[in-house]
Amino acid sequence: MSHRSQNNVAKVGVRLTTFGLLCLGASPAFAHIGAHDAIGLRAGFAHPFSGLDHLLAMIAVGIWAAQMKGNAKWVLPLTFPLIMVAGAVPGFMGVDLPGFEIGIATSVTVLGVLIACAVRVPTRLAAALVAAFAVVHGYAHGAELPRQAAAGFYGAGFIVATALLHLIGLSASAFGNSRLASNALRLLGGGIAACGVYLMAGAV
Predict the structure, then answer these.
(1) What is the C-alpha separation between 149 and 151, in angstroms, rounded?
(2) How far is CA 15 from its chain centroid?
(3) Could you list the residue ranges that cross the membrane (predicted)?
């Protein structure tokens, strides 16, 4: 990788990290909402960052999309948050979904393996798999909605956070197509899969 490319990657990483920290630390100021809504937005945004399972899965979706290339680079990062919202509804309504913790841990493991093996499948199949994982993640978001929070703002918060994590994963494509970059991503995928196995053991 050229020195210029390395600088560009570093700048992207710094900007994304700075944006995330600002969003977490700032007190949102909206003209027509109160503290109740602000708590909802902030709590929703912070939630994906509060658990290793959500964090790794959402970054992994972006990384896998970057590996898949083509339409997958925008289809997968759009599919996950859209289906996640649908999955949040039953969680918010208190519908019981047994084993959703194992489902979330499984999503981390499977996505890590897909990255480690650099698996490429038709975009529709990849989107269907990502959608299935999004349902359980969305359910967890909905079930863990703080009682004092506004559902709409909470949902908006975790959607923005999810998109940011997907972008962080997608930034992996900025490292180029060299064998070194490819091997580094595959090694990262192996680490994600190992974390998923650890999470699965804790969920059983």
Answers:
(1) 6
(2) 18
(3) 47-67, 74-93, 99-118, 125-143, 149-172, 184-201
Tokens of 104: 């979330």
Question: CA 91, CA 73: separation in Å to the nearest integer?
Answer: 29
Rounded distance, CA 56 to CA 126, Å?
A: 17
**Measured distance CA(188)–CA(195) in Å, rounded:** 11
The whole-chain average pLDDT of the chain stands at 81
Structure tokens at 152: 């709409």
pLDDT at 176: 65
Q: What angle do CA 170, 164, 114 make, to 5 degrees?
A: 40
Q: At residue 87, what are phi and psi to the nearest 5 degrees?
A: -70, -25
Q: Bin 25: left if φ > 0, else alpha if -120 < ψ < 50, else beta.
A: alpha
**102, 204 Cβ separation under 8 angstroms:** yes
DSSP 180-200: HHHHHHHHHHHHHHHHHHHHH
116 lies in which domain range?
A: 3-203
Structure tokens at 20: 């995330």
Q: Please state the domain count of the chain.
A: 1
200 pLDDT higher than 50: yes
What CA–CA distances, in Å, run from 124 to 84, 121, 127, 179?
17, 8, 5, 27
Q: What does pTM read for this prediction?
A: 0.78
Which DSSP string do the residues of 150-180 spell out, in sequence order?
-HHHHHHHHHHHHHHHHHHHHGGGGG-S-HH
Give me the count of residues in the chain: 204
